[in-house]
Amino acid sequence: MLLVLLDHRIFLYQSKKFFFGHECIDLLTTIPKAAANKIRMDCLQFYIISLEEIQRRLPLGTGIFKEMEFLSPEIAMGVKGNENDFTFKNICSRFNVDAYALLPEWRTFEFNFKSDEKDNLLKMGTEEFWITKMKNLNDNFLFPTISKLAKFVLTLPHANADSERIFSIVTDVRTKKRNKLSHANLTSICIIRSFLQDENLNCCIFQCKESHLKKLQRLNSTTIINIFFALWLHHA
Fold first, then answer.
1. In this structure, which of 22, 30, 192, 212 has its CB flanked by the most CB atoms within 10 Å?
2. Matching PANTHER family, A to Z (predicted)?
3. Which pTM was predicted?
């Protein structure tokens, strides 16, 4: 992608692979080729300026941003970069992770896999690499501290869509008739409803498992009511 941004000729050659939006694509098919290329070049210039501004304003390659590079399977496996450069000082402090427990796991990480295992792991995406494949037969993480940190970083939102969705849920739950809901109850209902939306579930098709019942036994009556209220509200 960066190569495309830096080379105008490659950009024009592969411009059909880029999605500019339906309206823009329709326009490009109805105007002369020179004008269409001008629009593509303007888009290119926009991306170049945006990239330069991001590099100028954000401390990329330093501090916590540098430490986030540990997520790359190539870096974790020692194929790219020097794993000894990572101290995890900033990121561990940010997410309240024990750096002293993490560093021994990190320094021995790549040596726990055979050559063929490394090759297979390097073909995986970042999420599958850290969340799915770093478990033993008992479904426990092989590297609990690193995996914990990876889960924290991978759950960081990359846009404001998630927060906007929560605001929408809050307005549905906390109405004029339900304006005395406590913050704890409101939070619980929003979390449950957000989960139901992500899993495409509602009270009619939700299947209560034995593990759910065991957890319900440890909860107070108010929390249980909130759970069933969230199920009903999501269906309604």
1. 192
2. BED-TYPE DOMAIN-CONTAINING PROTEIN (PTHR37162:SF1), HAT FAMILY DIMERISATION DOMAINCONTAINING PROTEIN-RELATED (PTHR37162)
3. 0.53
Dihedral pair phi/psi, residue 157, rounded to 5°: -70, 140
**Whole-angstrom distance, CA of residue 177 vs CA of residue 175:** 5
Summarised one tens digit per residue, pLDDT across range 51-107 is 788 777 777 667 788 888 888 888 888 877 655 567 788 888 888 999 889 988 898
Print burial letters for 71-87: b (CB count within 10 Å at least 16), e (below 16): bebebbbeeeeebeebe
Q: Are 66 and 81 in contact (CB under 8 A)?
A: no
DSSP, collapsed to helix, strand or coil, labels residue 141 as: strand
Burial (CB count <10 Å: 0-12, 13-18, 19+), residue 181: middle
Q: Which of 174, 176, 199 is nearest to 187 (CA)?
A: 174
Q: What is the secondary structure of 68-123 as a DSSP string?
A: GGGGSHHHHTTSSS-GGG---HHHHHHHT--HHHHHHHHHTGGGGS-HHHHHHHHT
Residues paired with 142 in a beta bridge: none
CA dist 143 and 109 (Å) reads: 8
